[in-house]
Amino acid sequence: MPLSFAPSAIPVIETRRLILRGPEPQDYPTFKATFTSYRARFMGGPLNAYESWMLYAAEIGHWQIRGYGMWMIHDRDTDETLGMAGGWKPAMWPEAEIAWVIWPGKEGRGIALEAAHAVRGYLYGALGWDTAVSYIDPKNLDSIRLAERLGAVKDAAATPVDGNDVVYRHPAPAALADSQLAHGIEMEIGHYADPLFKPKGWPID
Amino acid sequence: MTGFALPIPVIETERLILRAPRESDFPAHAALMASDRSRFIGGPQEPAFAWRGFSASLGHWALRGYGMWLVADKADDTPLGRVGFINAYGWDEPELGWHVYAAAEGKGVAYEAALAARAYGAAHLGLDGVISYIDPANARSQALAARLGAEVERDGEVMGHPCQVWRHPKQGTL
């Protein structure tokens, strides 16, 4: 019989509203729905069904090769998947990045902020990263806004992946720890988590 | 680093070791996929695409419970090629696939590796009497399939590319 591979060795990260786990076979349909859609236009997509499957397999392979990778974001209460966030570094990339994607229809609730803040804390803390970037398509305004809410700033001196991206540099671990920025991020997440809080304006990730 | 490692089995043959691919194998793989020698297996490809295929071969094991091994020289661990079972999106059923890197060509590496992988699949993975998709122009792979005792079953296609479907004998009937 085919072997059964438990993803149990991938650490689980829990936040106020989310549980982040490694990508599992049963999570694939929502990944495919996003990466074969126009939603993936800033992430090399839309992909065809074969490319999408191969990318999902590559997400899992990344964990084995690097020892870190992209977590699947689950709703803490319903377990439904909402997107992915984590560390990402294909071959020949200049640096490891902190990356995120939120499924269509799940934006506007601060999910990406909460997930990206948590994975950055894990990559800095448990894995000892001393810096991190995010490579973002300059037309991807939602992601640029999120990078800025996370305290990342444009790093013009850093090498981009292929020149079609802008490099945002995250605050270093020491600059982030117990900072006004970190407290502000946690307060913003708290406001999203509080059902009485109704943000005005259009949804942002 | 975390301890995440897929428990991919290791197979030893007389000259070879079949094991999980690792990052140090990628340059050899990228060189194959950048060259014209990859024309029957989806290439030539840019390194970024080759990387996706390379890392996806690990995730394939997690998603399907079987996959491809990296074939290395038993003596010094030099990467020589890949062999194993492929069942990505668009495949009719699991296939036994193989390719060797340029320096390893002509030494019977693919034959030795494919024989071992096929036997392992039949004995341990529930994969017996599998197919191999082979491009109609890929005479070398056709010769290897014939040497392995496989026969052409029908014309088929993968990813829109016409190919021959070869059927391997069940291990019990060898």
UniProtKB/TrEMBL annotation, chain A:
SUPFAM superfamilies per record: Acyl-CoA N-acyltransferases (Nat) (SSF55729)
Pfam families linked to this entry: Acetyltransf_3
Protein name: GNAT family acetyltransferase
InterPro entries attached to this UniProt entry: Acyl_CoA_acyltransferase, GNAT_dom, N-acetyltransferase
Domain of life: Bacteria
Residues annotated as domain N-acetyltransferase: 17-152
GO MF assignments: acyltransferase activity, transferring groups other than amino-acyl groups
From TrEMBL, chain B:
Pfam families associated with the record: Acetyltransf_3
GO molecular function list: acyltransferase activity, transferring groups other than amino-acyl groups
Domain N-acetyltransferase: from-to ranges: 16-164
This protein's name: Acetyltransferase
Species name: Pseudodonghicola xiamenensis
Taxonomic lineage from the root: Bacteria, Pseudomonadati, Pseudomonadota, Alphaproteobacteria, Rhodobacterales
